[in-house]
Amino acid sequence: MLGAGQSDAAEAKAIAPLAATLAAGPAAQRARLPDLSPAKWIWYPSGRTLQNTFILFRRELNLSGIKWICWPPTSPAGSSWPARSDFVGVCSHYGQNAYPLETMELMRTSGVDQFRDEVL
Amino acid sequence: MTVPPFCRNYLQRAAELKLRPLLLFDYNNRFYDHGGFPNSPEAIAAFARYSVELVRQTRGQVSMFEVWNEWVGGCGMSGRPGAHDGEAYGRLLKPTYAAVKKAFPGVTVVGIGGEYGPKCAENILGAIRTAGPDAMDAWSIHPYRYPRSPEVSDLVGEVSGIAAKVAGAGAKTKAWITEIGCPTHRTSGGSDGAAQARHCVRTLALLQSMREVGKVFWYDFKDDGISRDYNEHNFGLIHHQRFNCAPKPGMVAASVFIRLTGGAEVKGMTQNGSIYAADYRRPDQSNVVVAWSAKGTSKSAWTGEVVSVFDLMGNALAVSRTIELTENPVYLAGRKLRLEEGR
What we know:
The complex is a heterodimer. Helices cover 23% and strands 10% of the residues of chain A. Chain A is α+β, with helices and mostly antiparallel strands. In chain B, a hairpin with a 5-residue loop joins strand 10 and strand 11 (316-317). Chain B has helices at residues 5-16, 41-57, 86-103, 120-131, 155-168, 193-208, 249-261; strands at residues 20-25, 64-67, 108-115, 138-141, 174-180, 213-218, 265-272, 275-281, 287-293, 298-310, 316-317, 322-325, 330-339. Chain B is globular. Chains A and B meet through strand 3, helix 4 and strand 4 of A and helix 1, strand 1, strand 6, helix 7 and strand 10 of B.
């Protein structure tokens, strides 16, 4: 379940019955258990496990190495028209220092070239 | 006043990318009227000077300005003293507009500051009573209606009604919708991403087909926080930077709308039962139609030459003169396209 040493004391106590059961199993069974660290329990098991029990894990991934995940499509086939509109704009909060400046390029890429903001 | 460095940076970057900002003149000044709404002649004169100075300091980068934001609603002014009804706004707007236009005649000054709510028209008329009908180059409203669709909530009827009253008061300028949006929070009043996308495009097409509306600024570009239960954190067309600003379906839909209708002139809106069709004419006289069914699924038949068909996300669909319309708008590109009557 959890990687060795990954749980805190309270968690270790909570999963003690299950851990003991696992520890008593064959060595080969323990070896097959996946290492899901640093995942942590978000639901503590009870003393018994019903047949239809689902056990959910959550693992947070650090995507800091990726600048932006993906971006709007290029012009649809057959569209040779400028990617801008004098009618459509968006509201933003650059003036509250709440928007990364890089998002401005994304705005432009999407075809939006007007934005409503402020200077505080 | 001095524009802070980080604001200079974003305005500079906007200029480099040829983006056009609409900046607010906002808000109170702690040196006047006890930090409340500028009501006194001294506070109003100071606000007008500040507005002129902001235009001066951003000259060459900004040419559109809006006087205050949601004055009657009191946005950002919670608990602060002073009158903030329509008449009080008009007393601020008139000298501000005059001072800015005298110093910089070429800039656009938007009045009213995004009025909204059941007394929207009444408040605007109050402002016009004290400012006069000519103290703004456009007037702005914020007709939010989420999670209701623009058709069910009669967006066009509401905006038309307000515009008629404003015109009746002597104003000859257009409405700018400086905020409207559809948040994707998961609690009451929220919509899923697909609904945000379809409502965005339908809202834009409906408003653009009105002669009374000059621009729409969708609220807003990016999620302002990461709480999935709080509407204010979920208005964005793209996710928060914690989620790498990934686009929601609404961003792609808005981008496709811009790419397919940008540079084209809207010729009108046809409504046939639940079917809506906004007709755009390109400079080469070809046209693009944005069509959808506001309720259920409806078959539509088209005359003219259908050259291409795209879905809400910009995917190419099979070319046909018979299109099954759903609540998700589609785009028909071609020549002399017209919705057949009675279908």
